[in-house]
Structures are given as C-alpha cells and as structure tokens.
Amino acid sequence: MATIVLSLSAKTDKVTSQHEVLIRFFHGRINQRAKTNVFVKTDYWDEETHRIKLDEVEAQLKESEGWRKMTPERKRRKQELEALRKDLQGKTDRLNVITSLVSSEFEKTDKKNIAQGWLKSLIDGFNFPKNSVKEQGFFEVLTKYINERDFSLQRKRHFQVVWRTLKRFELYKDTCLSFDTITDDTLRTFEAFFRDEHIICERDSYRKILEAVPESRQPQPRGKNATNNFMRHFRAFWYWAMDFGFTANNPFRKYKIVECLYGTPYYITIDERNTLYNFDFSDQPSLARQRDIFVFQCLIGCRVSDLWAMTKNNIVDGAIEQ
Q1: In the predicted model, is pLDDT for residue 178 greater than 80?
Q2: Which of 3, 38, 174, 260 is 20 to 30 A (C-alpha) from 223?
Q3: For residues 31 and 24, what is the distance between their CA atoms, to the nearest angstrom?
Q4: Which helix (H) or strand (E) holds 133?
Q5: How far apart are CA 195 and CA 193, in angstroms?
Q6: pLDDT-derived band of residue 136, with 50, 70 and 90 as boundaries?
Q7: What is the largest CA-CA distance in the chain?
Q8: Can you state the percent helix, strand and coil of the chain, rounding each to 5?
Q9: d(CA 41, CA 22)
Q10: Between residues 319 and 270, which one has the greater pLDDT?
C-alpha cells in the first residue's frame, strides 16, 4: 500500500517567513520527495497530523462573530481572519488535489518502471501545464511572478519597477523581449539603459514612451549599487522562470553582477538618537514620520526589509519576534 506524507521544508523564505510544503511518496522500495509550490507559516502547520491548521483560525473567526461592539480594530482583525481562512482553505484544497492526483496516477502506472523523478514530474505538470507555459509571453509571465509570489509590499513594488523599466526598454529599442532571444549582450545593453535612462528621457522622442509606461517621477540618476540591485531582481525572476519550465535559456550564465560597494558606516550615539527623537518636527509631518520609523528600527534592530515584512503576528506577548 502506498503512503503519502506531507511536511514543511526547513528552509524559510526570508521575506514571507513561510515554508514550502513537501510531499513524500512511499511504496516498497520507491521513496520519492517533491515540492508542492504551496507555502505556509509554521504557526499554521500541524506536525502531528501533517496538515494545515484550519480549526484554530475558524474558532477565532467564530469568536469574532460574538463581538458585541465592532470597533475599527476588531473589524480589521475580523477581515484579517477571513482572509487568512480563505488563504489556508485554498492551500488545503490544493494539497488535497495533489495527494489525490498522486494516488490515482500511481494506480495507473507500471509499478516496476517508475522513473526516479516520477513524483516531481507529475506535480510540476500539475502546477505548470506545458501548454500554458508555451502560450504565455515574457511580460505575462513576469506579471504572474509578481502577482502570485508571496512578496512583501515593498518587494512587489521593486519588481513592478522592473516590469515598467523592461517595457520602456522594449519600446525604446523597438524590439520584442522574449525568453528565447534575451542573451548576455541583451543584459549588458539593458544594464546601460537602466543606468542612463535619466539622460535618455530628456530626448523628445522618449516622451511618448514615458507617457505610455510612466513612473511616479521622472527617472533619476542611478548609481552602480542601484543598478546591481535592479539586475539581481531581474535575475531572481529569470531563475524562477527556469525552475518552472518557462525557459531553458540562461543569459545570466555569462553575465556577472558585481558586488555592491558601500562606504564606511558611522554610528550615532544614544544621546544623538534621543536628540533626534525629541526634535520638534511638528511643521514637517513627513520628516517626523521618517524619524519615528528610524528610531523604531534603532530600538529593535531591524532592517527596512524586515520592517516592511512585519505583521501583527510578529507581536508575541508584548514583544516583537521575527
């Protein structure tokens, strides 16, 4: 009799703090494991039953139905619980479909001739049907990547900038970007375009392109570190596309992104921090807000990316935990 076991990967996504659900299939000497492309936080995974915890969320949601006074805070909490239940239910349903698919396909398969990568191939085929892969264009896949990946708001905005800049590049070069035609030379040309776009956009011929694919502000001079970080985002998308069968072409194999260079850091003292915290910014609310964010980061020792990724779930017993 075949056995299917679900478990969480030990690897944690640095942005979402989620773990991918892994599936392991046993039958006689057959022992295969594969990724499901379903991600969940450890808080909502039951190690004993090997399934997503829905009962706790549903119990909390049911409790919220009995709240007599619906304050703004309670309303937000209820909306969060409803969204969480919907998300977890969808992931549970998908895992059920995957396990049922594995069981049914195994019954149809010649048990003596099961390939080593049978389980992975089966699940990848379910998650990323070949026909849909072939039909989707470059920007359609990039949009899929941005919308379906569980990114923080800040990281999603970074990839939206990638999308818009690539689109302006395509229009400027009067070409059609595709996975098959992009080479390492294309990447170098694109790197130069990203770095020099603030100069290019001064040309009258570029005005229509900016109107067609606008930014919140006109492109500004971009340094080497900004350019390197931008190309890293592009490379992350490309490797994802390779992993999920959208392309076998790897232009980054011959294109190297150099390390960012940073100056010597200077640390403020506690007295200087307190002086900044007590400074009167009442006439400049935006600076006061930035000051508060900065001091908050000083007190808990988090980076900007950590701050953007925080939710109410990071507050545990009055303390902030990652």
Answers
A1: yes
A2: 174
A3: 7
A4: helix 130-135
A5: 5
A6: low
A7: 77
A8: 55, 10, 30
A9: 13
A10: 270
CB 250 within 8 A of CB 179: no
- Quick check: pTM over 0.70? no
**Distances from the Cα of 318 to the Cαs of 63, 112, 258, 313, 315, in angstroms?**
22, 57, 42, 11, 6
**pLDDT tens digits, residue range 6-45?**
999 988 877 678 899 999 998 888 899 999 988 998 988 9
Residue 261 φ/ψ region, left for φ over 0, alpha for ψ in the -120 to 50 degree band, beta for the rest: beta
Per-residue tokens: 62:
């049911």
Residue in 153, 170, 166, 316 with CA at minimum distance from that of residue 237: 166
Q: What gap in Å lies between CA 310 and CA 322, rounded to an integer?
A: 8
pLDDT at 109 over 70: yes
**DSSP string of 10-79?**
S---TTT--EEEEEEEEETTEEEEEEEEEEE-GGGEETTTTEE--HHHHHHHHHHHT-SS--HHHHHHHH
